[in-house]
Amino acid sequence: MKNNDADLSSNPLSNIQSPAREWQEWIIEADITAMQQEMEQGKLSSERLTALYLERIDRYDSLLKSVLEINPDALEIARGLDQERRDKGVRSPLHGIPVLVKDNIATSDKLHTSAGALALADYRAAEDAVVINKLRAAGAVILGKANMTEWANFMSPTMWAGYSSRGGLVLNPYGPGELFIGGSSSGSAAAVAANLAAAALGTETSGSIICPAAQNSLTGIKPTWGLVSNAGIIPGIGSQDTAGPMARTVSDAALLLSIIAGTGEHPHGTLSDGTAGRQDYTASLDIEYVKSKRIGIPRFYYRDLDEEALLLMESAIAVLKELGAEVIDPIELPCQNAEWNAVILQYEFKKGLNRYLSGLPASIPVHSLQELIEFNNQHSAQALKYGQGWLDTSGDDITEQEYLEQLQFSRSMAGRQGIDYALEHYGLDAIMFAGFHGTDLAARAGYPLITVPAGYTTTGITAPGGYITNGPQGVTFSASAFSEAVLIGIAYSFEQATKHRRPPLLDTAGEAD
Questions:
Q1: How far, in whole angstroms, is CA 236 from its chain's centroid?
Q2: What is the model's pLDDT at position 210?
Q3: CB of 290 within 8 A of CB of 490?
Q4: Which of 183, 307, 424, 447 could form a disulfide with 211 if both were Cys (CB 3.0 to 4.6 A apart)?
Q5: What whole-number distance in Å separates Cα of residue 66 and Cα of residue 146?
Q6: Residue 6 φ/ψ, nearest 5 degrees
Q7: pLDDT single digits (tens) 91-134
């Protein structure tokens, strides 16, 4: 098992008796509500729950490489929360629940924050990211850091999804070494899918939550830009970046979003007194929510699906109709043939990363993008398995005027001439995309997405790195800014009617079938 300073054979599992077999079986696919019920009845403790997940990580993650580091204080934190439950009661529905967080989200503990990069392997943040503060305040146990695509896939065009210099290549538990893992929140996705944590936080710039969630039969939510604070998160594209929940159920994802949402960075996330507002997204969990909702089918974005994936989408459409939704099929978006470029990515990534690195302690070997490039060149055997083509070309010749023009074009085309146009023109409540198709539109517009399992295929198309995109597939619902409650309600109705998710088959040797 992964640990930042010590072998886990002596720390921390040696401090607790091995979980009983019935709990080892019970934990598979258990949701947060069930965990809380067992703890309230005194049948389960947070300490034992944490130990259950630590044991599963120890057993299975040597193959999957989804967990980069284990929090050595996890069991101690869990014990303290158990005592608090007995003495004072619970802080929130997340009290005592073990959660993994992506390695680009700062935690002020014994864990490192490195974005998977060798250059930041020794960096420990002095302050928690805002989302981590919220998780701790809610009583969550930070179980560890999830592996990720290095620098959130802004390093090299040839780098395989899920690879980092620190953690190696994350594998999809539904077909290790065969199936595509998805975007940069790959470790968060694989770990939750394999029942190595109750839930996880990922981050998304464009597809990095939705894609791996869909490829690992999970629910993933990309919130509206500005709903969740980015403070303390290593930047990618500041105008698009957001953290979001990844979970095995819509209800767990809605619960996690309810905890982390709210920030002073955007007026929609603040109350009149300047304090963070909080919405209970679990209020949308109604199986009949989708009834009479109007949902559009953008056939243009289905054109690259293979036969099996398209059949899954047709089946999803039929389910929505059976649930009483009004399906508008097809719809067209004026932006669907737009040509996009990488100006925003290159300009914002360079500025944001330079700003972030310049604030790191003197003990860290890099404090600018140029120093990072030089460090990687000096440690090329470990750091440059796939090169650093995108780091080398990050925005050197882009003027601020060019950037601002592209930003305005991108937001207008994806928003007013894209998602907003479709919602208004067709009178829609939401648009349904296939898996990660359409994620770039929502990213550019800053709009929310939710993906939910849609089933499984047996054949697929070749993806970057030689993987095929068969196995788990998702349907993804989109709408305008701050429509998370609507999207969660629709996704929950679909999830409860279909129950498509099933766990990957993991044997006792730590291999997935």
A1: 14
A2: 98
A3: yes
A4: 183
A5: 6
A6: -145, 155
A7: 999 999 999 999 999 999 999 999 999 999 999 999 999 999 99
